[in-house]
Design brief:
The chain has 330 residues and is α/β, with parallel strands linked by helices. Helix content is 35%, strand content 26%. The strands form 3 sheets. An 8-stranded mixed β-sheet has the order 1-5-4-3-6-7-14-13, sandwiched between helices. The protein has a 4-stranded mixed β-sheet with strand order 2-12-9-8.
């Protein structure tokens, strides 16, 4: 009997775990954040299709060094990372456009260990795109995509063999320290002893370098920041005017973190029918949209040890701007 030829679609599975941003949990979370003082919008709401496109553009800006620095580390050390992990399955949390992922997948293919790729992202469009792209590029590769908020749906990581979980881009810095510990502890419980974690962290450095990276001369980051208001409008039927806010980014040296905020240029009343909420926003009032904590090696090592991992290898780019930590689930 003739066996059917392998097709790309045969090797792709995508699970959908988003509960829907219209559900009660979504409304409660966003309402609570917007009524805190200072007001907040969780940074996960940056990433609609337009937000994802803008972030890809940010990664190409001359001021935004993290993507280039992390790529330089992977270009030099991906083979060593793959050999040291010994894993055949790559689980990537928040891959976005997965622009650096190929370096790891190429190294796994060269080592003969590439079996499964799991892109886990809130963007359905991005998961579908990278699933198709990588299934075409790597014959025999199985792709099990997961569409969901990995902060809420971490337990939906599929069971598997020896897994390397990749959390790149310094995204761990977007979490408050206590939330970062809780997140990594939950991830450790989802992994098996011996599984690997590849963690990207932006490093503590000069204020001017950091602030330029989050407030570029071309204004792309400013537009990315204001776009979060458009996302909130669409999800809630709201009437935020993004043009009535200016972008502000600054480095808090005491907390070692960048904060991104939107500053109201005038007093305004904002109606959010989907949240049954009206906001009276004063001129000069700020809405916190993102933090980005910066680390050094002792802080990373302590974070890993407290959450069920053991640091095995530490990699930095030649300029010491960024780090990748290869850790093992103990």
């Amino acid at each position: 009997m003739v066996q059917p030829a392998d097709t790309v679609s045969d090797r792709i599975r995508i699970d959908y775990h988003r509960a829907g941003r219209e559900d009660q949990a979504f409304r409660d979370e966003l309402r609570a954040a917007l009524t805190e003082m200072p007001r907040r919008i969780p940074s996960k709401y940056f990433y609609d299709e337009r937000g994802s496109e803008l972030f890809v553009a940010i990664c190409e800006l001359p001021e935004y060094y993290p993507t280039r620095a992390e790529r330089a580390i992977l270009e030099r050390h991906a083979g060593e990372i793959v050999r040291a992990s010994g894993c055949s399955e790559l689980v990537e949390l928040g891959p976005g456009a997965a622009t650096k992922t190929r370096l790891l997948l190429d190294a796994m293919a060269e080592a003969g260990t590439l079996d499964l790729y799991v892109p886990f992202d809130v963007s359905e469009e991005m998961v579908a795109r990278v699933a198709r792209e990588f299934a075409r590029l790597y014959p025999g590769l199985r792709v099990h995509g997961v569409v969901g908020d990995f902060m809420a749906h971490l337990g939906k990581i599929p069971e598997g063999g020896c897994r390397l979980a990749a959390f790149l881009g310094g995204t761990i810095g977007n979490l408050l320290p206590e939330d970062a510990r809780a997140f990594l502890a939950r991830l450790a419980r989802r992994l098996d002893p011996g599984d690997g974690l590849l963690l990207g962290t932006d490093l503590i450095k000069d204020r001017a370098v950091l602030e330029a990276a989050y407030d570029d001369a071309a204004g792309v980051t400013a537009e990315f920041n204001r776009n979060i208001l458009r996302v909130v409008n669409r999800l809630t039927g709201g009437d935020f005017d993004p043009d009535a806010f200016r972008h502000r980014a600054f480095y808090d040296e005491e907390c070692h973190r960048i904060e991104m905020r939107l500053v109201a240029e005038r007093a305004q009343e904002v109606h959010l029918p989907g949240l049954d909420l009206t906001l009276a926003i004063e001129e000069g009032e700020e809405i916190l949209t993102e933090i980005s904590t910066k680390y050094d090696r002792p802080k990373v090592e302590a974070l890993l040890e407290r959450t069920g991992f053991e640091l095995e290898r530490w990699y930095t780019d030649p300029d010491g701007l960024f780090a990748l930590s290869l850790a093992r689930r103990v």
